[in-house]
Amino acid sequence: MTRRPEAGLSRRTVLIGGAAAWTLALAGCAPARTERIALACGEPGGAYLQFGELLGAALQDRSGVALELRVTHGSGENLEMLARGDVDLALSLADSANESARSHDFTAIGRVYQNYLQCLVRDAGDIRSFADLAGRRVSIGAPGSGSTRTTRRLLEATGRASGGGAPAATELELSAALTALATGDIDALFWSGGIPTPEITDVAAVTPLRVIDLGDVVDPLRAAHPQEYLDARIPAGVYGTEGSTATIGISNLLMCRADLARDAARALVDVLVDDARRLVPTGSVGLQYLALDTLIDTGEVPLHRDARARYRERYR
Questions:
Q1: Nearest CA among 278, 3, 235, 202 for reference residue 118
Q2: Residues 83, 111, 199, 138: what is their CA dihedral angle, to the nearest 10 degrees?
Q3: Strand-pair category, 168-170 with 188-193
Q4: Are 101 and 257 in contact (CB under 8 A)?
Q5: C-alpha to C-alpha distance for 128 and 136, rounded to whole angstroms
Q6: What is the pLDDT of residue 283?
Q7: Bridge partners of 188?
Q8: What is the Cα–Cα distance from 316 to 312, expressed in whole angstroms?
Q9: Who contacts 277 (Cβ-Cβ below 8 Å, separation ≥6)?
């Protein structure tokens, strides 16, 4: 697990200072204990669902709270479910979360790990760069997914959203996109997830894949959307690649509404802090943010009130 002690330090003072202001006055009967909460995750084979399964097991062991996992298309659908009250928690890419939090009473339990925007093509094909995607058939992600949002932003920021330089974009779930890529029905796919993604690894073992370098297009994307995207690299060996590949990193947040029960928020913080190693999927080589000084760095999305108070206690 990679620890980034420099991230989120600007918020540490905020957490430590003024703790008394958040002291809860408990009067009358104690609130009912939370026994079950629902989490909107993502597609089968993706890191969201893997993380949800690990989080659920740790939460059950530590606090007895049962976590119901909902299979979805990802960030966009997760946030819609959270807004409707269909779920108590949602995993979301930071760019999607920031936009939704401006119009909903959303908060966060913590910043949990980093997604990697991955652009994959058949190694035997002639696509060698992002520019080669012009006019090609490309899946940009599942409908309602964070991958779709991020990829559309990338195409817009680089001037390839329309016109002769634009790929012919379609929206496919990961499994369907991988099948279409292997059979030649599409030329490339974008996927935002952890590395390696097991379903991609399985396909790459049969149909050699190439990871397209996105290093040249990070700057225009960040210029259009400051403070939401990071420089990242996919290490050598992932999907059989020989060298590391530059790509785009996007933080993931564990989201909730402001009315999430106090005991649930506190229990989730304890799991994220104390069971951090249990929450990293086997074989993952991506960046994890499961440390006190980085969990609280949720950007534009405020921390849930009771999660914030629990982090203060854990800092002492």
A1: 235
A2: 70
A3: unpaired
A4: no
A5: 12
A6: 84
A7: 121, 138
A8: 7
A9: 1
- H helices within 184-236, ranges in order? 198-206, 218-224
Q: Which two tokens stand for residue 190?
A: 């974008």
Report CA dihedral (175, 125, 164, 74) to the nearest 10 degrees: 20
Q: Give the β-pairing of 137-139 and 209-211.
A: unpaired
- Kindly report, residue by residue over 59-114, the tens digit of the pLDDT: 999 999 999 999 999 999 999 999 999 999 999 999 999 999 888 999 999 999 99
Report the mean per-residue pLDDT for the chain.
88
Please enumerate in sequence order all residues whose Cβ is within 8 A of that of 66, keeping only pairs 6 or more positions apart, or say none. 35, 36, 37, 56, 60
Cβ contact 19:308 at 8 Å: no
d(CA 2, CA 21): 33
For residue 1, pLDDT over 80 is answered with: no
Q: Is 300 helix (H, G, I), strand (E, B) or coil?
A: coil
| Angle, CA of 233, 128 and 168, to the nearest 5° | 100
Name 220's Cβ contacts closer than 8 Å, sequence gap at least 6: 157, 158
244: left (phi over 0), alpha (psi -120 to 50) or beta: beta
- Which pLDDT belongs to residue 17? 39
Q: How far, CA to CA in Å, does 79 sit from each of 4, 110, 122, 187, 214?
A: 27, 15, 33, 30, 27
- Give Cα 84 to chain centroid, integer Å: 21
Two tokens at 62?
Answer: 């530590």
Nearest to 70, CA basis, from 61, 169, 56: 56
Report how far apart the first and last C-alpha atoms of the chain are (Å, whole number).
Answer: 23
